[in-house]
Design a protein that fits this description.
The protein is α/β, with parallel strands linked by helices. Helix content is about 55%, strand content about 10%. Helix 13 (about 315-320) links the parallel strand 7 and strand 8 (about 325). The protein binds the ligand Cc1ncc(COP(=O)(O)OP(=O)(O)O)c(N)n1, ligand 3NM and magnesium ion. GO terms for molecular function: magnesium ion binding; thiamine-phosphate diphosphorylase activity.
């Protein structure tokens, strides 16, 4: 009973620590829900053991193990380390409960075995999320303005463009150029990485996970017909951001379930950069806002894209979008006025 009591407490405390991480640090309602469900299912399984028997068996002053703390138990290097410690505690405690449970009731032990298998997946997910570069994700979450640019006539042309856009307040810049050879694209991507880092702007490569990884960019953006997100993740690693284009609600739901970090939603309006036969428009944006605000849905930053300019950005904001990705509207010498117009409308929309 003392083993069962100690391990039931351990697993509950560990899960609560992880739940708070999902809730307050990752803002991940879905992960929080899974952890909470695990905690409740364990509490339900524990009703097979008399609580009075457990409490009566408890003997903290007589516990020979309370002094046996190692120095590493009082020190956590970072969030990943903290979450790993809690996850390992939960896993070990579940196994202990299961083994000692076999002495009490085989149904109880079997139930704990099922919970343990479910827990493995959840514990791996939260630890991987917390071992990622949270600074990058925080910057993404706080960003409202995203510019897509081509590689420029020369490297210095590209560098000047990145400097100009970042000076005006653009927070994310994507290198999107299908008209240059791989070597030039790679060299421009590397130059972009250096200047974007200096300017504290996120640097994303369109379509090419290989070049994003090789050039040490902050991330990659892919479309529905390109590599699936899981394959992109295997190339770019756990820390780089992955953006995914979406054009309907099914694709948005797919993105939420995937390892994507943000989505582009469009096309909203006709523009000169890319032609489309259909425009899901602001109705689509409104439905994305409702979908992403649904309780229990993973929060995923969404950028409206397609023909967005100073004179229509109010409609984007009215659809609940506080973030935009644009090419044409910023393709002028000094986009400072456009940035100001965008901010005026978009800042009215709280970011989620
Ligand atoms: C932020 C953002 N959103 C959407 C897109 C479009 O991506 P995709 O559909 O793959 O089309 P191409 O840009 O590759 O022509 C994007 N690039 N960025
Ligand atoms: C590249 C791209 N993708 C879109 C999508 O809807 O997926 S719209 C688009 C063009 C964005 O440029 P502009 O702001 O000039 O319209
Ligand atoms: Mg693409």
């Amino acid at each position: 009973m003392r083993v069962i009591d100690a391990n039931a407490n351990r697993v509950g405390e560990g899960l609560r620590t992880l739940e708070e991480t999902a809730r307050f640090i990752l803002d991940d309602a879905e992960l929080q829900f899974h952890l909470k469900t695990l905690r409740h299912d364990i509490a339900t399984a524990m009703t097979k053991v008399s609580r009075v028997d457990l409490l009566s068996a408890r003997d903290t002053p007589g516990d020979v193990g309370t002094d046996a703390t190692t120095s590493s138990e009082n020190h956590r290097v970072d969030l990943g380390d903290l979450v790993a410690a809690a996850a390992i505690r939960v896993q070990q405690a579940l196994r202990c409960l299961e083994e000692y449970g076999k002495l009490i009731d085989s149904d109880f032990a079997s139930e704990l075995e099922r919970i343990r298998y479910r827990a493995y997946d959840c514990l791996a997910r939260i630890e991987l999320r917390c071992r990622r570069d949270l600074k990058r994700i925080d910057r993404l979450r706080n960003a409202r303005l995203y510019a897509l640019i081509d590689a420029g006539r020369s490297q210095s042309d590209l560098i000047q463009r990145i400097e100009e856009l970042s000076r005006c307040g653009v927070e994310i810049i994507q290198l999107r150029d299908a008209d240059i050879d791989d070597r030039t694209l790679y060299e421009r991507a590397c130059a972009g990485t250096r200047v974007a880092r200096d300017r504290n702007v996120l640097w994303i490569i369109n379509d090419r996970a290989d070049i994003a990884a090789a050039a040490d960019a902050d991330g990659v953006h892919v479309g529905q017909e390109e590599l699936p997100v899981a394959a992109v993740r295997s190339i770019v690693g756990p820390d780089r951001l992955i953006g995914l284009s979406t054009h309907n609600l099914d694709q948005v739901r797919g993105a939420v379930a995937s390892a994507a970090d943000y989505i582009g939603c469009g096309p909203t309006f006709p523009g000169k950069t890319k032609s489309f036969s259909e425009f899901p428009g602001c109705e689509f944006l409104k439905s994305v806002t409702s979908e992403l605000k649904r309780p229990g849905t993973r929060s995923l930053p969404a950028f409206a894209i397609g023909g967005i300019r100073s004179d229509n950005v109010d409609q984007v904001a009215a659809a609940g979008f506080g973030r935009v990705a644009v090419t044409g509207a910023f393709a002028i010498d000094s986009p400072a006025d456009v940035v100001a117009d965008f901010h005026k409308q978009l800042n009215r929309v709280p970011l989620y």
